[in-house]
Amino acid sequence: MRSILVILTFAVFAGVLTVEIVKDNLYHPTTIKKEVETRSANVLIDPRLRPYYVKIAQRLNLEGINPPRQNMVSLTIGTLPQGVLGIAMGMFVDNVINVIISEAYWYKLSEPQRMALLWHELAHDVFNVEHGSVEIMSTSMSKIDTSNIDNMVIELINYIKNGRQKEKRSI
After folding, report:
1. Which residues contact 71 (CB under 8 A, 6 or more apart)?
2. What predicted TM-score, i.e. pTM, was given to this entire model?
3. CA gyration radius for the chain?
4. Is residue 90 within 8 Å of 97, Cβ to Cβ?
5. Nearest C-alpha neighbor of 90 from the set 115, 123, 134, 66
6. DSSP 93-104
7. Per-chain mean pLDDT for the chain
8. Is a pLDDT exceeding 60 seen at residue 163?
9. Beta carbons of 77 and 49 less than 8 angstroms apart
10. Fewer Cβ in 10 A, N or C end of the chain?
């Protein structure tokens, strides 16, 4: 089993396969669905995160923010230390988006909190936006007023458009 995982991991990074994690429910094991990769980027997006990712990508495109594609896009739900809702592992890595969201907290968040969390982590990873830059980049979800998420997103988009990001990358 370990050798199969190593081969699949190599194939993903070599650009041969796209891997999508599919989880039926909490009681079934995670399964892997593979398909031949025809694009330049390798994409691994947990199906639970895909709708949020798509909405964010569409909003960025609508706003005229179209950074170039990445070599790898990974948005997964996994185990993180207690108190950590998400982490942008690809921040300051030029060609990689690698976001992990805490499974322990994901199901406790409201829909607006989930959207705010994805905007927050992708802003780190795609645009290298740091904590405290704008309201949505607060270090604590409890400090974010999710009833005002539209205004927070507009503030973030304006921050990005004004060229304050360190680097533009694709999602």
Report:
1. 40, 41, 42, 95, 96
2. 0.71
3. 16
4. yes
5. 123
6. -TTEEEEEEEHH
7. 75
8. yes
9. yes
10. N
